[in-house]
Amino acid sequence: MLLPRRVIANLLGVTTEPESGVRTRTRQAIVSAAIAEWARDFAAPLSAIAERAEVSRSTLHRYFVDRQSLIDAALREAQVVLDNQSAAAVSGCNSAREELESLMRVLVDFGDILIFLFADPNRFAGNAEWIEAEDEMLPEIIRRAQVEGAVADDVEPSWVIGVYYSICYTAASAIATDELSRLRAADIAVRTFFRGVAATPATEPGH
Amino acid sequence: MLLPRRVIANLLGVTTEPESGVRTRTRQAIVSAAIAEWARDFAAPLSAIAERAEVSRSTLHRYFVDRQSLIDAALREAQVVLDNQSAAAVSGCNSAREELESLMRVLVDFGDILIFLFADPNRFAGNAEWIEAEDEMLPEIIRRAQVEGAVADDVEPSWVIGVYYSICYTAASAIATDELSRLRAADIAVRTFFRGVAATPATEPGH
DNA sequence: TCACATTGACACATCAGTGTCTCATTTTCA
DNA sequence: TGAAAATGAGACACTGATGTGTCAATGTGA
Known about the structure:
The structure is a homodimer. By secondary structure, the first copy, chain A, is mainly α. Chain A is built from ten helices and no strands. The radius of gyration of chain A is 20 Å and the shape is elongated. Mean pLDDT of chain A is 84; it is low at 1-18.
């Protein structure tokens, strides 16, 4: 099998040429197809992904030696996209509350990736790339939101995170099934989240 | 293959002897194992289910001709259990709000079944048994809750249902991973749900 | 134009899961 | 106890997905 240096570099995740080139484009198409297809059904065969990417199964195997290496690549790609978008969304916010809202709108908008990443909790169990997927950013923002008072401080942060993601996920699903428009889904998701985890109003103390 | 009348009756869903008998017990063990195993990983092979049920793969195939028929049975069983528990939970409640809370505590408690049923939205797409899975009860309760004022009436019922299930699911997951105790998970889930979809407080009108 | 990179179309071998079947053994129950 | 029921063990064929390889055709850039 012919395997130019560039590919080997790519396989190692070094990505010499991030933007142009035939191989980069083909590779990108395959990874994107994998994310989209596996968001729908993680058991989808490689042939389905090749078809969606409009390449032959041979070509797919040239870029990714086996199923696992494509999973790794898709996982890495999904995280990178989400990380970048998240960073962009958060910058320029003036409060933790704003950050949470802005971030949620991004996550809902990239529903495909979100579903791919979080549809099945143990989908990526034992995957090397998955360990670092424990987001560092969200817990930190939530802590600040608790200090700010935008989020109740008598609730476990892990629960807040769980609710956060599951509401994003619900919104993404609603969009995917045409139940709600993009805008409406994002709005109602933000509203539901903040009310759900809001600090206990002083008017009904612990009652 | 030997196949007494009783089995054929069972296969047709007529269930002549619902409570005792060797075959009933074996059958039940297999279906339960299927739900538990498939809640973890829907791609799990039949051999894994047979192993968990402590029967041979031969026996499993005697009860369920093919994978699909076991899926059907598991689906039916899951729905029946949930339906019965739900009905019991709802009876004796004095308001839609109480019903929603009581129902949520049941769903969280039967997390395995909940995860099995709702982990993957299109897991059962095209399944004959799945059509009726569109619960009749929940939409009706939510409508009443909206009339009562316990749930905002400017929110799509489909969204309320989605949030309801996803919060149950999050709680079930938190229990499954030992993040929260059973009781705490149920409490915080109920609280989060009702605040999340509460009617807009008059103090901040549409702002 | 020419060398090389890239691709598609096949042909395979392999493997795991599925479904069928037989036969010996154990369990159940009248 | 003895017949019927139920099970386990294992052999077998079949299928879909995977992974490897070859070869011809096409694309690309100096």
